[in-house]
Write a structure and sequence with these properties.
Blueprint lengths: L1 H8 L3 H8 L3 H26 L6 H7 L3 H13 L8 H41 L9
Helix pairs in contact: 4-5
């Protein structure tokens, strides 16, 4: 998630709209998206600063069935968030991307060779004697 966050903070919004030459409704849609993105960032930052505790005593006093509250509190205390190491997946994606780029370059080379061969064939056809001058 940190990689996604760092990439999102590096977006140069003005460069995107100027380099793509966005105008009209597309540019206004991009600006609206940027505003929603900034608002969401502010809300997330504010939520991260709030305490994340649960007042189980309040639930016990409010609910008649305190056994449910006790069970939920026990599960809450046992909960341990899982962290995932995504480096391995990122490396696999990068390797796949590298292989895809290599394959695309090879394909481009083959297509260029084919275009050259077809261009040569076309030149031969264009420089050939006209059909009515051929003898059988």
């Amino acid at each position: 998630m940190a990689a996604g966050r760092s990439a999102a903070t590096k977006i140069d919004w003005t460069r995107i709209s100027s380099s793509l030459g966005l105008k009209g409704s597309t540019a206004s849609s991009l600006q609206a998206f940027k505003k929603r993105n900034d608002d969401a960032r502010r809300k997330i930052a504010a939520l991260r600063q709030q305490p994340q505790t649960v007042d189980f005593a309040k639930y016990r006093s409010t609910l008649n069935n305190t056994a449910v509250v006790n069970e939920i509190e026990q599960q809450f205390k046992q909960f341990k968030p899982v962290t995932y190491d995504v480096d391995r997946q990122l490396k696999a994606i990068e390797a796949f991307e590298g292989q895809a780029v290599k394959s695309a370059e090879e394909t481009k080379g083959r297509v260029d060779q084919e275009v050259q061969a077809l261009t040569k064939t076309l030149e031969n056809i264009e420089t050939a004697r006209p059909f009515d001058e051929l003898t059988v």
